[in-house]
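Record type: monomer structure entry
Structure origin: computed from sequence
Chain ID: A
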Amino acid sequence: VVTVTDTGTALQLNAPEKTMAVSGNLINSGTINLNSPGTFNYHATGMQILLPSGESAKANVKIGNINVNGKNDDGVYIRSGFYGNIYSDVPSNVILDGSDGVITLNGERNQGVSISRYMGSAGSTNGLDNIKNLNIIVNGKEGVGIGISPAELTQSNDYVLNDKVVKSIVFGPNSRSSS
């Protein structure tokens, strides 16, 4: 069990520049608990995937169990790398697989999966093509199961939530003003 109580990230795949090659597996085989207080200076992330605006990263990411209990936190955060922050339609070679666990949103204003980068494979018409089998329980106040950055939506890509991307989204008894 890994618990993040302030700002920070439990697990991170980091390839922020196009020239940085990353390959392998990032596996959460246990449970990540996010319990940040959600103030301006505090934000916690269970798994962060930082990818360049190129195809250098090739990895399989297993989400495992992530309990998002704090405020303003993300279970999984996918974005372009630090350098340039270019929102890009460059294909991704990273596979994000949720089949081995559940992201549970408790707390307030949390997101299960926050997407700020194209996650489609080469030749795909779906910007979410490399995200598979998500299991999300939304059980808090103003929680968002899957959020896509407004800047990413200005690109010419489609983002299609289908039964390949999402295995289940359940709204629990404590879910209020959530989506």
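Annotation 1: Helices lie at 150-153.
Annotation 2: The chain is about 0% helix and 45% strand.
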